[in-house]
Amino acid sequence: MGFLYAVAGLVNLRLYWRFGHSFLERRPSLSLGLFRFAVAFTVGCHVIPSFCYMADNYLPTAFKTQNYSFFPIGLLRLVESSPPWVIWGFMWLCLCALITFTIGLYTQLSCILLTLSCYYFSALNNYHIGTLSFDILLVTLVLMCASPYPGDFLSLDSLRRGKPAPYKRLRPFFIQRLLQLQLAWTYWYTALYKITAHGNWLTQNPYCALMHYPPIGVVRDFPMRAFLAQHPPLCYGFGVLLVIFETLTPTLWLIPQTRIIGIGLGWAFHLMLWITLHVPTIFLFLFPPMMLLFVEPERWVHWIESRQAAQAAAGRAVLLYDGQCGFCLESVKRLRILDLFGWVDPLDVHQQPDLPKLHPSLTPQRCEREMVLIEPTGRLSGGFDAFRQMAPHLPMVWPILPLFWLPGARHIGRAIYRWIAANRLLWGRAQSCETNQCHLASSRVNPSAN
User: Fold this and answer.
1) What is the DSSP pairing of strand 26-28 with strand 170-172?
2) Is residue 130 helix, strand or coil?
3) What's the distance, CA 128 to chain centroid?
4) Is residue 371 classed as helix, strand or coil in its secondary structure?
5) Taking Cα atoms as reference points, which of 291, 400, 283 lies closest to residue 42?
6) What tens digit of pLDDT does each residue of 85-131 get?
7) pTM (2 decimals)?
8) Residues 186-212, buried b or exposed e (16+ Cβ, 10 A)?
């Protein structure tokens, strides 16, 4: 008996180690940073359209339905008594939190406020948002706001911190693991629901009944619909295959050797749902990106670093900056974070004694006055023009890229850049020029400053 207890203890210890290692291991968190955009986009597609009809959806004039299976009755009564100014306040809170969460500014706080506002509107009126699909999204939001990890990558938080290579930052992996399990259990739950007492997919033919629904129902008018409606055995076969698919696909995600196959099948499945059924946006906008959470984050890191190596082999641009200016040093630190694929190589102008060797038209005075960019093609630009040339190669700048080419943008950008460059001492005193090197450098250029 003692031997059996010892064997059982070793087995339990082995299982505990595997379980703890799976959840507590530290791995790169860039997958959560990418998934942040899918969550924000899905929330926007669910909630923002409902704000266009506030009087019909949320104000006292609206016809409302409550989700008693998800919220306590006391909470529903409290939310129902909200005056209009509270409802409008939550609307603006939701929109502001959605923007800051998307760009990754104070990501965890933004996600918490976004989650609270989404729960509020779901409790206020569940009719225009949906039931199961939005409930799944709310659970996803809770997991996302449980830690600051979604703000580690492609975010303003990564710029605020200024730590190099944020895409390789190691974090506890348990949040991503929980999101994986959430998706897997959603698939398994829908399969079990179809074959248990609540469902009848193995005893009847609900798939054929769907094909006979009216056109305004849940089924779209896709080309094969009339044919399937006339062939009940074929519909039954498709229904059984669907149950098998929903049961086995999560298993393919969990096995490394079959993971890519499972993700491809999952994407094809959700595309089929969107083509044939009027399904909520969550099934197209949230679940397919969620499947990418099963991809090992080290694969994404390897892909980024392979792009960096390819860029280094092809030749990088050179950015000359004033290495004796603390403000400039901090700016270059942020530039290295923006430059995900290693397109530019920042160089301290004070460590380049032979500037004409880099480019015939370079002078020390110009390099101390503004940053200078030498592209791999040999093209030379400085100040705002240099940043505009770098912008297409900086992924985090892509959303605002069209602004750099608007009419008059060059004149406004140059004026702003000249003002910042002329007041580096002011900016430096407040943030980074603790050694006052900006003032010393400007004194060398303009002796009258003393």
Assistant:
1) antiparallel
2) coil
3) 25
4) coil
5) 283
6) 999 999 999 999 999 999 999 999 999 999 999 999 988 988 766 66
7) 0.83
8) bbeeebeebbeeebebeeebebbebbe
